[in-house]
Structures are given as structure tokens and as C-alpha cells.
Design goal:
By secondary structure, this protein is of the alpha/beta class. The chain is 37% helix and 24% strand. The chain contains 10 helices and 10 strands. Strand 9 and strand 10 form a beta hairpin. The chain is globular, with a radius of gyration of 18 Å.
């Protein structure tokens, strides 16, 4: 049984058209996944359905064999699925430590929250160095690390990230993916939607190409990276007739 099963999901916003048009996907434990595709394919919509921010019009999501339909977002979070949106929804006028504490708001044991925060500091030393700095004064990369750290306080089974490198310089993007590799090493299943498709696929074990609201192609990330059709359509690089990259 897969850790997370997305079964024939149809979803959209308000009275608008369907964005997801029958999407099915299986997520295995201890693996990392990168979801790519053109704008409007339904990548972010999928993450919102899984975490309960958007109710599907049809289909269902199952986590550890139990249906998530009807659960609130906080209930889904409590079960071990954490969503990190692209808008860097930090508390700007709170310090790094205060933001990390907010990550553990559903935990009753304050001492345990403090222990987990120390674990985050071990993973991201820069956050410990700037412990009392306001979140709004951090660089984009540091804010993204704080978001990852806040998620880590909950010790989730799945972390879903929507465009984690958006707006970051290439070297900072690489630092963020290095941080995500640490999460992988800790045994967390990661689902990332990434506008830098090549970087996302190089990070992930498994790739999925969404288009028109469905999974058009999926497989090992290395296979997707080396598929000339995928490369031309979704990775922004067209191969020459001799098979070399142009």
C-alpha cells in the first residue's frame, strides 16, 4: 500500500472550470517526488487538495490507508502531512525562534517543542546564529530555510513544497535543495512542485509530468531528464538531430 494515494481527483476553484481533470498518483514512503508541467497544469492545485485547502469535486485522497475527505487542514497536518506554500507565509514581525515555536502550535509539550527546535538549529546553523532576528529581515533563502525548519518541528511524514526556489538566485536555490536533501536523509517523504524543472528532477527520485490536469507521464527522475520528448516540451531545451543538446 502506498503512503499517499490520489485517486481520480477532479478539482477547481469556485464556479470555474476543472483544473484537475481525473488525476491519479501514488506516493511511496521514503521517496522524493518532483511534479512538473506548464502553467495551469494543476501542480499547485494538487498540493492544495492533498492538504485540505481545496475540496475536490470528485475522487479522493488516502493517507496510510485512511481517507482524508472531510478533514480540516489542521487535522491533516496533525496526521503528518505538511504543506509549505510558495508565498513564504511566515510571521514577519516575529523572531526566528518565535516562528519555529508557531510551527509546533499543535503540540502540547512545550519542552518537546524546544527540543525539536534545537534539532532544526542543528540542521540549519544560520537560523541559530540569527535566533532573535525578525523573519522579515531575513534573505529569501533564509526565509525558505525557516519555512523548512518550521515544518520540521512537526516531524511530518510528508512535506509538500510549492516552488521552493521561486525568486531565489541559483546559488541560493542550490542551498535550499541541499537542505531538502537533509530532510530526505531524515526519512521524510518530499513532494516538490518546482518551476526549475531540471533542478527539481535532479533532486527527486521520481518525477511526474502534469498537463491538462492529469498525469501525462511519470517515472524515475533520471528517465524523465533523459527523455527527448519531455526535454523539449517541459525542460526548456531542444535536442539537435544528432542527439546533442542545443
Amino acid at each position: 500500500m502506498a503512503l499517499l494515494e490520489i485517486d481520480d481527483i477532479v478539482a477547481g476553484y469556485g464556479i470555474g472550470p476543472d483544473i484537475l481533470t481525473g488525476l491519479s498518483l501514488k506516493i511511496e514512503a521514503d521517496k522524493s517526488y518532483c511534479i512538473i508541467g506548464p502553467n495551469g497544469a494543476g501542480k499547485s492545485t494538487l498540493l492544495k487538495v492533498v492538504c485540505g485547502l481545496l475540496k475536490p469535486r470528485r475522487g479522493g485522497v488516502t493517507f496510510e490507508g485512511q481517507a482524508l475527505s472531510g478533514l480540516r487542514t489542521d487535522e491533516i497536518l496533525h496526521r503528518g502531512i505538511c504543506f509549505v506554500p510558495q508565498d513564504r507565509s511566515l510571521f514577519p514581525d516575529m523572531t526566528i525562534r518565535e516562528n519555529l515555536r508557531m510551527g509546533g502550535y499543535i503540540l502540547k509539550d512545550r519542552t518537546e517543542v524546544d527540543r525539536r527546535i534545537e534539532g532544526v538549529y542543528g540542521m540549519f546553523p544560520i537560523l541559530k546564529e540569527r535566533n532573535s532576528q525578525l523573519a522579515k529581515t531575513l534573505s529569501g533563502g533564509q526565509q525558505q530555510m525557516l519555512l523548512l525548519g518550521r515544518a520540521m518541528v512537526l516531524r511530518p511524514k510528508i512535506i509538500m513544497l510549492d516552488e521552493p526556489s521561486l525568486g531565489l538566485a541559483p546559488i541560493v536555490s542550490r542551498q535550499i535543495f541541499d537542505s531538502m536533501n537533509q530532510l530526505k536523509s531524515a526519512g521524510i517523504t518530499i513532494i516538490v512542485v518546482e518551476q526549475n524543472a531540471r533542478m527539481g528532477l535532479q533532486f527527486a527520485d521520481w518525477g511526474c509530468v502534469l498537463d491538462l490536469g492529469k498525469a501525462m507521464f511519470e517515472g524515475p527522475s533520471a528517465t524523465i531528464l533523459n527523455d527527448p520528448r519531455i526535454e523539449e516540451l517541459y525542460l526548456g531545451r531542444k535536442r539537435s538531430r544528432t542527439g546533442t543538446n542545443g
